[in-house]
Design brief:
The structure holds 2 protein chains of 2 kinds. Chain A is an all-beta fold. Chain A has no helices and 11 strands. In chain A, strands 2, 4, 5, 9, 10 and 11 form a 6-stranded mixed beta sheet that branches. In chain A, strands 1-3-8-7-6 form a 5-stranded antiparallel beta sheet, with no helix packed on it. The radius of gyration of chain A is 13 Å and the shape is globular. The N and C termini of chain A lie far apart (37 Å). Chain B is an all-beta fold. Chain B is 0% helix and 57% strand. Chain B has no helices and 11 strands. In chain B, the strands form 2 sheets. In chain B, strands 2, 4, 5, 6, 9, 10 and 11 form a 7-stranded mixed beta sheet that branches. In chain B, strands 1-3-8-7 form a 4-stranded antiparallel beta sheet, with no helix packed on it. In chain B, strand 9 and strand 10 form a beta hairpin. Chain B is globular and about 35 Å long. Classes of the chains: A mainly beta, B mainly beta.
């Protein structure tokens, strides 16, 4: 049972445009969400997080939106740069369990076209 | 220092070998993790250490044996592995169990 789903395995975006990566979850206990970026042969790098008390969090070019009623979150990258080409994982956890129950999605490969 | 360092980066071992993976962090994090990642799959949690004590073992076979000698170090001892254990093994740490985890670069393990 995949509790965190990233339904788009891949996404191609023109450099300078907005990249939107989507993530859906099924477990209503999840209340803390993270995005990680992963280059080949490297470990995931933490990008940005959001807790369920907020619906938006920004950090530079990265913004995460959370729609609790739809159990959906998205990561917006604007403007997209070639160095953003990587696999992006969303992850979720529940308060009280923290990283001990961090559940990852299957990832979306983002390719930025120069 | 905001790094989690894993050694070795690559490891090839036979099914009768004994080897160890090492992980080190100097961020003062009190939670450390081992994950396993197969190709095109998300990372899967194996073990969690909190304040140097094993708090989670996600039903991992006994041929994988974790050890936390101190708050900065985490080892994963490997013995009698199978070819299907070939994967990227990731170490991570976090300040506590409820803050974002930082990952190392991983050890690419191949069992022959």
């Amino acid at each position: 049972d995949q509790q965190v789903k990233q339904n788009s395995p891949s996404l191609s975006v023109q450099e300078g445009r907005i990249s939107i990566l989507n993530c859906d979850y099924t477990n209503s206990m999840f209340d803390y969400f993270l995005w990680y970026k992963k280059y080949p042969a490297e470990g995931p790098t933490f990008l940005i997080s959001i807790s369920s008390i907020k619906d938006k969090n920004e950090d530079g070019r990265f913004t995460v939106f959370l729609n609790k009623s739809a159990k959906h979150l998205s990561l917006h990258i604007v403007p997209s740069q070639p160095g953003d080409s990587a696999v992006y994982f969303c992850a979720a956890s529940a308060w009280g369990f923290g990283n001990e129950k961090l559940t990852f999605g299957t990832g979306t490969r983002l390719t930025i076209i120069p | 220092d905001t790094e989690v360092t894993q050694t070795p980066k690559h490891l090839v071992m036979g099914m009768t070998n004994k080897k160890s993976l090492k992980c080190e962090q100097h961020m003062g994090h009190r939670a450390m993790y081992w994950y396993k990642q197969k190709a095109k799959k998300p990372p899967e949690l194996m073990f969690v250490y909190s304040y140097e004590k094993l708090s989670i073992n996600e039903s991992v076979p006994s041929r994988f044996s974790p050890e936390c000698p101190n708050s900065s170090l985490l080892n994963l001892h490997l013995h009698a592995l199978q070819p299907e254990d070939s994967a990227l093994y990731l170490c991570a740490s976090s300040q506590d169990r409820n803050t974002e985890a930082f990952f190392g670069q991983g050890t690419r393990l191949t069992v022959v």
